[in-house]
Amino acid sequence: MPATRVSIFPLAGALLLPGMQLPLHIFEPRYRALIHDAMARDRRIGMIQPRDAGPVPTLYDVGCLGHVSDIEALEDGRFNIILTGLARFRVVRELPVSTQFRQVEADVEQVPQEDEVLAAVERAGLEKESRRFAEILGYVVDWTAVSRLDDTALVNGIAQIAPFDPAAKQTLLEAETLSDRAECLIQLMQIVGRIERDGGATMQ
Fold first, then answer.
1. How far is CA 40 from the centre of its chain?
2. N or C: which end of the chain has fewer CB within 10 A?
3. Structure pTM?
4. Which residue spans within 37-158 are E strands per DSSP?
């Protein structure tokens, strides 16, 4: 697949995964311009995390292409949007542009034809660790609803909402398979759980 031009929204700690949704409130002028541009073209923007702070931070190599599936335009020019993940992409190079927002040339992953599934023991281990993690952090969870989620929705949903730092979120995004992501989640929940039990700060 040839490289694709992607307009990007760098945002630390915001994890978008294929098939999942991410609500965003758009208020900065450069990202309002990004939304106007996306809506005039294909409704697609790339979510990617910055590696550092600053006005023009360096970027991680991998992000996720998203489709603006819902949008609310506010009177003062801001937007509330829902971004639906399409596919991961890998940055080839950043493009010299005159737009307020940054753009990259990227290789976009082909979408898998079949949904990935976990082995029964992997699913059970993830659910067990999730219950322990939620109890430690004091989260109220509808476990009946959780049990009805398919494997992809369960793994990716936890990855998006769990209170992990940007580097950990990036590791989850870059996991090669659903099984790899589930194993990484278990390890991260165990680490954060131990920190919480010991009275320390979370990874955020």
1. 24
2. N
3. 0.90
4. 44-48, 62-73, 79-94, 103-108
User: Selecting from 3.40.50, 3.30.70, 1.20.58, 3.60.21, what CATH number does the domain 120-197 have?
Assistant: 1.20.58
Residue spans of the domains in the chain: they are: 4-108, 120-197
What is the spatial distance between Cα 147 and Cα 74, in angstroms, rounded to a whole number?
Answer: 37
Sign (positive or negative) of CA dihedral 39, 158, 48, 193:
positive
User: Contact at 8 Å (CB) between 89 and 109?
Assistant: yes
| pLDDT for res 204 | 47
Amino acid at residue number 191: I
Q: Which fold has domain 4-108?
A: 2.30.130
One fold for 4-108 and 120-197: no
The mean of the pLDDT values for the chain is 92
What six digits make up the tokens of 58?
Answer: 């360096």
Count the alpha carbons within 13 Å of 120 in the hemisphere toward its beta carbon. 0
Element (H, E) at 189: helix 178-197
pLDDT of residue 2: 67
Q: What are phi and psi of 185, to 5 degrees?
A: -60, -45
